């Protein structure tokens, strides 16, 4: 199985970049993981929220194939404890999921076309975080989940 994280716009803050890079390097020992960064939509100030979401969705959908399992990171999604998230990933691997794609939407959320294409929604918290921070939090939780599955001492419970 391979896992991708699709997100809109680049990360600007160096401390976030360093953290994300650190977890990406650690993840390569467990899983084929890549982050796909879609550039910010140009001239977005001239677009309505709905138009911006539609344009972002067009770009996101270019990276999704028909057999991919798509999970939207959304504050209204299902919440997991870290061990439960690890079990979720284990089930996806056992069910022969080839490509698991997690998606962080733009500032206004997801267009209906992405919601219709998605298989589920996952919430990292009921709180709202910046899209850049979500990349770090998600990368860390993904690493934590694989360390749990491998029985390694990173996670304490």
Automatic annotation (TrEMBL):
EC number per UniProt: 2.1.1.177
Record Pfam families: SPOUT_MTase (PF02590)
Binding site for S-adenosyl-L-methionine: 73, 105, 124-129
Keywords (A to Z) from UniProt: Cytoplasm, Methyltransferase, rRNA processing, S-adenosyl-L-methionine, Transferase
Main location: cytoplasm
PANTHER family documented for this protein: METHYLTRANSFERASE, RIBOSOMAL RNA LARGE SUBUNIT METHYLTRANSFERASE H
The family this protein is said to belong to: Belongs to the RNA methyltransferase RlmH family.
Function: Specifically methylates the pseudouridine at position 1915 (m3Psi1915) in 23S rRNA.
Name of this chain's protein: Ribosomal RNA large subunit methyltransferase H
